Amino acid sequence: MSKPDAKIPLIDFSKYLHGTSEEKATCVSEIIKGFTTSGFLYLTNSGLSPATAFEWSKQYFALPKSVKEKHPNVIKEANRGYSGMGIEKVTNLDLDTKDEASIAKLRAAVPDLKESLEIGSDAGRYPAKPWQNHYPDTEVPEFGKVMRKFYESCDELHHEVLCAVAEGLGLDKNFFKQYVNAGDHVLRLLHYPAASKEVLTQPGTVRAGSHTDYGTITLLFQDMSGGLQIRTPEGEWQDVEPIEGAIVINSGDMLQIWTNDVIKSTNHRVVSPPSAPTTDDGSFSARYSIAYFAHPDHDRLVNTIETCFDEQRPKKYSPVYPGEWIVNRLTATY
Ligand SMILES: O=C(O)CCC(=O)C(=O)O
Ligand SMILES: [Fe+2]
């Protein structure tokens, strides 16, 4: 169970979208409280439902391996396609050192027990990119249509949340808007297959290893299996229990850099808690989740906001290009 002091606020977003100016202000300060303490919050009444996307995601993961492996996620800059079981080992390494030995050691360690499909933007609403999504529309009819629609709905919601963040930081409401128009976001479908308790309770074995997210915010849709945890400043793991109908939203590296650590990019992971549902043979049941990683445009420089540093609080980060940041992080991850 989560501890009572868990600073993961449950926020009714309809109050921001349609409330009185007082309700709106309360909502903004709750969002800022979540992002500046645990780096996580729950959002309800956002108007966005992941139900259809989950249905199509399940159909995708049920396809034969040979079909999914036709379009592997191998080009870091593209970050599109399928990653099979054990391909990814997420981590936070000190990327300034680019320590090849630690990356190699990490790759040899126990891999994450999951498979995923990464989907990027499509030309049309967004500027064309040199890379394409490969939708399995023959095997799963309308897959591309469903995912494109969901991607765009997530983009819209993410814009609203960033407006609230800007307001909460005392900036112009549209401050982040100029940075997030290229559709450099990533929609990631995740499947953690059923696994025996012997495997998942071995020391060091996790469904997804500890990491921070690289972008501005992540919209995380999880089923009711549980297992998501965040690391508290005291170094303890705290459950982010699923709440029916609530979207988990966490702040990522870009907001942390922009705000000089005022907003947190918190480490999180996925394990199988003892309370996780089990199958008839006593294994942990499969878990499905969908993450929408919102990113600033890859070629727009992100530089710490002027009001977030002064003599007492020196600037901690050099300006970064989001595109370079993500490629460095992905290189250390796969
Ligand atoms: O599956 C989840 O609940 C979390 C996934 C996650 O943190 C990620 O893919 O970055
Ligand atoms: Fe994550």
Automatic annotation (TrEMBL):
<dbReference type="Pfam" id="PF14226">
    <property type="entry name" value="DIOX_N"/>
</dbReference>
<comment type="similarity">
    <text>Belongs to the iron/ascorbate-dependent oxidoreductase family.</text>
</comment>
<dbReference type="GO" id="GO:0016491">
    <property type="term" value="F:oxidoreductase activity"/>
</dbReference>
<dbReference type="Pfam" id="PF03171">
    <property type="entry name" value="2OG-FeII_Oxy"/>
</dbReference>
<feature type="domain" description="Fe2OG dioxygenase">
    <location>
        <begin position="183"/>
        <end position="296"/>
    </location>
</feature>
<keyword id="KW-0479">Metal-binding</keyword>
<keyword id="KW-0560">Oxidoreductase</keyword>
<dbReference type="InterPro" id="IPR027443">
    <property type="entry name" value="IPNS-like_sf"/>
</dbReference>
<dbReference type="InterPro" id="IPR050231">
    <property type="entry name" value="Iron_ascorbate_oxido_reductase"/>
</dbReference>
<protein>
    <submittedName>
        <fullName>Oxidoreductase</fullName>
    </submittedName>
</protein>
<dbReference type="InterPro" id="IPR005123">
    <property type="entry name" value="Oxoglu/Fe-dep_dioxygenase_dom"/>
</dbReference>
<dbReference type="GO" id="GO:0044283">
    <property type="term" value="P:small molecule biosynthetic process"/>
</dbReference>
<dbReference type="InterPro" id="IPR026992">
    <property type="entry name" value="DIOX_N"/>
</dbReference>
<keyword id="KW-0408">Iron</keyword>
<dbReference type="GO" id="GO:0046872">
    <property type="term" value="F:metal ion binding"/>
</dbReference>
<dbReference type="InterPro" id="IPR044861">
    <property type="entry name" value="IPNS-like_FE2OG_OXY"/>
</dbReference>
